[in-house]
């Protein structure tokens, strides 16, 4: 689904109440950097188990993910919402 | 209902991924990065999953739905940790089979169920669950 409304708005529009949003973009970047760092550290073993094509693709995807977060194109939030009490 | 193009593409992409057997290297990598060992490769860390247990008040007697849980992360972990019941759902059958196997080998298949279903048309009635999670799922 594509929408330019933010997720908290979409949740509210879908009938959820008490929508709380916490920004986790910092942790998201840390995790993305860890995927990249450990993929490189374990590269020989990963290549042996996944094959070169998949290993190359994963490295490229992980690099792209880090770049996208660093450039502010991606963010990550924890959204917690409650269903509205039913009448 | 006929699956949409997005659903068919996601099912094919992820079926290919979940059909690939895990290896020591992929398990080591996942443990180092997010702390889990479910064959996941997303961004929900174990600390964040623990936060979900708390925020969603998961406990014995509660029922959780995890939408798009792949091979069971984080839904099965949340159920194991909190004692709640869980239904995990995803598009590829292969992922649900692996999740079923995991719940069985960890001895809680009596409260863990797998359903192949699209998030767009979940086959559950209103108020079936006490909590719903979805992590790293865009559909
Ligand atoms: C990146 S994985 C995330 C898996 C897991 N939740 C995690 O956090 O590691 C995205 C998952 O969403 C599933 N998915 C994508 N579109 C879906 C849809 N329409 N209905 C159900 N699952 C879907 C995919 O099959 C895949 O398993």
Question: How would you explain this protein's 3D organization?
Answer:
- The complex is a heterodimer of chains A (87) and B (139).
- Chain A is built from four helices and two strands; from the N terminus they run H-E-H-H-H-E.
- Chain A is α+β, with helices and mostly antiparallel strands and 87 residues long.
- A two-stranded antiparallel ribbon of chain A has the order 1-2.
- The model of chain A has no long low-confidence stretch (mean pLDDT 93).
- Chain B has helices spanning 5-19, 24-33, 46-55, 75-82, 93-105; strands spanning 63-67, 85-90, 112-116, 131-133.
- In chain B, helix 3 packs across helix 4.
- Chain B is globular and about 35 Å long.
- Classes of the chains: A alpha+beta (87), B alpha/beta (139).
- Chain A binds chain B through residues 1, 24, 27-28, 31-32, 34-35, 38-39, 42, 45-46, 48-50, 54, 58, 76, 78, 80, 83, 86, and chain B through 20, 23-26, 28-29, 32-34, 41, 43, 45, 48, 51, 55-56, 127, 138-139.
- The complex binds S-adenosylmethionine.
Strand order of the largest sheet of chain A: 1-2
The count of helical stretches of chain A stands at 4
How is the main sheet of chain B built?
Answer: 4 strands, parallel
Mean pLDDT of chain A: 93
Q: What general outline of chain A do the C-alpha atoms trace?
A: elongated
Question: Could you provide a short overview of the structure?
Answer:
The complex is a heterodimer of chains A (87) and B (139). With 87 residues, chain A is α+β, with helices and mostly antiparallel strands. Chain A has four helices and two strands.
Features:
heterodimer, A: 87 residues, 59% helix, elongated, B: 139 residues, alpha/beta, Rossmann fold, four-stranded parallel sheet
């Amino acid at each position: 689904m594509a929408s330019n409304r933010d997720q908290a708005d979409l949740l509210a529009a879908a009938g959820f109440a008490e929508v709380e949003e916490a920004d986790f973009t910092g942790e998201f970047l840390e995790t993305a950097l860890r995927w990249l760092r450990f993929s490189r550290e374990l590269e020989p073993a990963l290549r042996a188990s996944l094959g070169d094509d998949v290993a190359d693709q994963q490295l490229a995807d992980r690099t792209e993910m880090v770049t996208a977060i660093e450039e502010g194109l991606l963010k990550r939030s924890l959204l917690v919402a409650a269903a509205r009490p039913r009448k | 209902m006929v699956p949409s193009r997005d659903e068919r593409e996601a099912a094919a992409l992820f079926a290919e991924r979940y059909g690939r057997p895990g290896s020591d290297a992929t398990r080591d990598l996942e443990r180092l990065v997010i702390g889990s060992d479910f064959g996941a490769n997303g961004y929900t860390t174990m600390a964040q999953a623990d936060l979900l247990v708390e925020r969603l008040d998961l406990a014995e007697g509660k029922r959780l739905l995890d939408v798009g849980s792949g091979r069971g992360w984080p839904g099965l972990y949340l159920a194991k940790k909190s004692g709640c019941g869980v239904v995990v759902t995803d598009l590829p059958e292969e992922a649900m089979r692996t999740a079923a196997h995991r719940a069985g080998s960890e001895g809680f298949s009596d409260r863990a169920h797998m359903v192949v279903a699209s998030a767009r048309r979940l086959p559950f009635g209103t108020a079936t669950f006490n909590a719903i999670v979805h992590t790293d799922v865009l559909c």
